[in-house]
């Protein structure tokens, strides 16, 4: 399994520069690294000094790179979609639809990128996969897909399984789902007691994102006020998808007492003003130390306590609600649905307080 690493920050703070420097350093240490870019422009190519394509290419010893293009990813999957459709329908309807003519619907980019990363991870060819997203908010949405889809499946499975509309549309929905996830399902799967391949994949994705030994993010900022404010917001938003933030990288500036205080709960490192990749790489932190950073979510069944790490937000910006066996924490523009373990099911919220960037919920 690969260690998947990404960088979050406001546009223009040097996320791509840090991603390239990290890839070069890790590759020089003997790690097999895949650098994945989702930037459709040529700016990443100019930084890297190599013209990337949708086909992986080795650019240095131990370092390969690829540019994700959603149209290509969808096109590659389409023939598999047709094969799956032929299995479900006696008279296939998609045989005259060609991958080259398919458009990208909103949200497809992130789903296709996540599936590509999953496949690179499962290939066993890479020790580290570094993902440089087009923007940080899209990156967070991408890593949040497994948890959000799993929640929708869990919440609506019974309702959908009893719907005549879903039963009728299932043969058509299945191929479209397969285009993104490369798995099949039918309406019968919705009320099945066994875990489907799609559900297993989503659960594995959830576990990976919430495990800092598998997936970690690092903030990148400058001293510019809006860059720092964005970094703080992204720090809190990452917790809402159970993504651990391992530290802050301050680009081209010295670490001030103010910066250290604002991000006191995570390590802060800084990069020198240089274009030398070796110097930049040497200044970067040990990314696998993300395991020592605060966990986004901690559930203590014995104490009847749930702790949610929410840096970058104030008490007034956080809303807590309970629906049956789930808690919903809303902060910023994201909701985190927390599924309570069996030992806490049936217990109502007794109280909650916001202290030291933690929402502490008592059951």
Structural overview:
The protein is an alpha/beta fold. Helices cover 39% and strands 22% of the residues. The chain has 11 helices and 15 strands. An 8-stranded mixed sheet has the order 3-4-2-5-1-6-7-8, with helices on both faces. Strands 9-10-15-14 form a 4-stranded antiparallel sheet, with no helix packed on it. A hairpin with a 2-residue loop joins strand 14 and strand 15. Helix 4 crosses helix 5. About 2% of the residues have low confidence.
What is the residue-averaged pLDDT?
84
Count of distinct strands: 15
Class from helix and strand fractions: alpha/beta
Whole-angstrom Rg: 22 Å
Short synopsis of the structure:
This protein is α/β, with parallel strands linked by helices. It contains eleven helices and 15 strands.
């Amino acid at each position: 399994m690969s260690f998947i690493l990404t960088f979050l920050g406001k546009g223009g703070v040097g996320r791509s520069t840090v991603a390239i420097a990290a890839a070069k350093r890790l590759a020089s240490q003997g790690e097999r690294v895949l650098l994945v870019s989702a930037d459709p422009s040529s700016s990443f190519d100019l930084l890297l000094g190599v013209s990337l394509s949708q086909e992986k290419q080795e650019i240095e010893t131990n370092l390969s790179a690829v540019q994700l293009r959603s149209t290509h990813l969808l096109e590659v999957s389409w023939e598999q979609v047709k094969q799956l459709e032929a299995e479900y329908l006696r008279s296939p309807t998609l045989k005259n639809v060609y991958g080259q003519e398919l458009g990208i619907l909103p949200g497809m980019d992130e789903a296709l990128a996540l599936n590509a990363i999953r496949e690179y991870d499962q290939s066993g060819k890479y020790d580290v996969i570094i993902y440089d997203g087009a923007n940080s908010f899209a990156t967070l949405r991408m890593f949040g897909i497994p948890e959000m889809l799993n929640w929708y499946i869990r919440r609506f499975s019974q309702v959908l399984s009893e719907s005549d509309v879903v039963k009728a549309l299932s043969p058509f929905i299945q191929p479209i789902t397969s285009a993104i996830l490369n798995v099949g399902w039918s309406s019968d799967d919705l009320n099945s007691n066994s875990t489907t391949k799609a559900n297993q994949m989503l659960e594995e994705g959830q576990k990976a994102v919430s495990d800092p030994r598998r997936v970690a993010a690092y903030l990148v900022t400058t001293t510019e006020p809006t860059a720092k404010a964005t970094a703080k917001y992204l720090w809190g938003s990452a917790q809402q998808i159970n993504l651990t933030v391992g530290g802050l990288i301050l680009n081209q500036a010295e670490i001030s007492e103010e910066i250290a205080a604002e991000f006191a709960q995570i390590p802060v490192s800084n990069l020198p003003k240089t274009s030398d990749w070796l110097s930049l790489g040497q200044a970067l932190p040990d990314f696998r130390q993300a395991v020592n950073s605060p966990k986004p979510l901690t559930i203590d069944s014995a104490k009847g306590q749930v702790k949610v790490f929410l840096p970058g937000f104030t008490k007034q910006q956080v809303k807590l609600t309970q629906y049956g066996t789930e808690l919903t924490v809303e902060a910023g523009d994201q909701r985190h649905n927390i599924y309570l373990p069996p030992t806490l099911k049936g217990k109502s919220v007794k109280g909650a307080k916001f202290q030291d960037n933690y929402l502490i919920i008592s059951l």
